[in-house]
Amino acid sequence: MKAPSRHAQARRKVIFKHHRTRKMAATAASPEISSTVSMASLTVQDAGDASPPALPRLVTSYPPIRDALVTDSSQLQDETMEECMPFLTGHGHDLCNRNGIPSLLRDRHVKFLQKQLGALPSMFKAADPSRPWIFYWCLNGLSILGEDVAEYRTRLIETVRPMQNEMGGFAGGFGQTSHLATTYAAVLSLALVGGDEAYNVIDRRSMWKWLCSLKQPDGGFQMAVGGEEDVRGAYCASVIISLLNIPRNLSPDSPACSAGHTDLFGGLPEWVGRCQTYEGGVSASPGFEAHGAYAFCALGCLAILHSPHRTIPKYLDTPRLLSWLSSRQHAPEGGFSGRTNKLVDGCYSHWVGGCWPLIEASLRGPEGQSTRPAENPPTPVDDSLFDRNGLIRYILCCCQDLTKRGGLRDKPGK
Fold it and tell me: Any idea which GO molecular function terms this record carries (predicted)?
């Protein structure tokens, strides 16, 4: 085991200011820190005052309550906080304006994504089976940044056409096995570039037959014929079936028919519900460890099967799930971790962050209207269950590649 870091050595169960470590005390003593200013309220204090407003204490100080037990995990957590702190306080970059608000390096990210859609270096040959994921994330990122991705339509069509197998579905590359994950990425990429020419690439009949072969007697979906069955399959299949308007009746030779199922969605929400763990999160399949990406897949699947306010509370223990999801956000970093006792990671800004709109939809009821009395309106989820501003600050301050090449990273040092 490595020697404890100087921050870990000072760990003790303390509350607030009375027994802080030297690092915490030094941070708290900084005149730039104020415990009364929220990020949402950062404004210019006075037109004639040249000094910037204070940053929220949450993102400029270490947690006031610490556990005295030192472990490998706690040391890694301390190291991560040490690496993130200069970026969170604005000392590791020049992204923040005088009000302490960081900016998005949009143009650099656009160029980075466009470059990844070109020729890749030879070291990427090991990622050949993941090609649909590479162009999907790039096209999706460009679309979110406001770029017109229709210009990639012809190139994309010629790229994905050989990936489609006669038996249905898309593989990661020519001659490879069809897989639900790569099919999901290929179909959504075609949807992003749009146009009848793109949609007509998809053989919907063979897609239906292939999906029927993946449907299992217990209600779930395999990722590939003979492959693993997990909640990714439930989500990917639901998206594909819904987006392409695939007929839901099962073919007579589907494995699911042996259990009496007649519908592609038969038994699916019940199977998803069995993936919820004792922690409150969702695992890949029943009996395994909860993971943020699987929670997103479960919620996404249930939201597709029916209105979120009906399916999510029916098949998942929502209070326990909310508790687990809220626990994924770390302070002072502001980012999300994917599992209990793990570090923050930029990718979970998508997987865990994407859970909250679905949770909010389930709480608000049909068409966004809460079923609560008008005199007792619900508190917006993004204001009460997770710190939206903390997440934004983590993404912009800690995850942006500050070099000219652009792009986003896991965390500082990665």
Answer: protein farnesyltransferase activity; zinc ion binding
What's the confidence (pLDDT) of residue 369? 59
pLDDT for res 248: 97
Residues of the chain with pLDDT under 70: 1-56, 92, 367-383
3-state secondary structure the chain: CCCCCHHHHCCCCCCCCCCCCHHHHHHHHCCCEECCCCHHHCCCCCCCCCCCCCEEHHHCCCCCCCCCCCCHHHHHHHHHHHHHHHHHCCCCCCCECCCCCECCCHHHHHHHHHHHCCCCCHHHHHHHHHHHHHHHHHHHHHHHCCCCHHHHHHHHHHHHHHHECCCCCECCCCCCCCCHHHHHHHHHHHHHHCCHHHHCCCCHHHHHHHHHHHECCCCCEECCCCCCECHHHHHHHHHHHHHCCCCCECCCCCHHHHHCCCECCCCHHHHHHCCECCCCCEECCCCCCECHHHHHHHHHHHHHHCCHHHHHHHHCCHHHHHHHHHCCECCCCCCEECCCCCCECCCHHHHCCCHHHHHHHHHHCHHHCCCCCCCCCCCCHHHHCCCHHHHHHHHHHHHECCCCCCCECCCCCC
Distance CA 219, CA 207 (A): 18
Q: What is the pTM of this model?
A: 0.83
pLDDT (0 to 100) of residue 194: 96
**pLDDT of res. 58:** 73
Q: Which amino acid appears at position 86 of this protein? A: P
pLDDT in tens, 64-85: 887 889 999 999 999 999 999 8
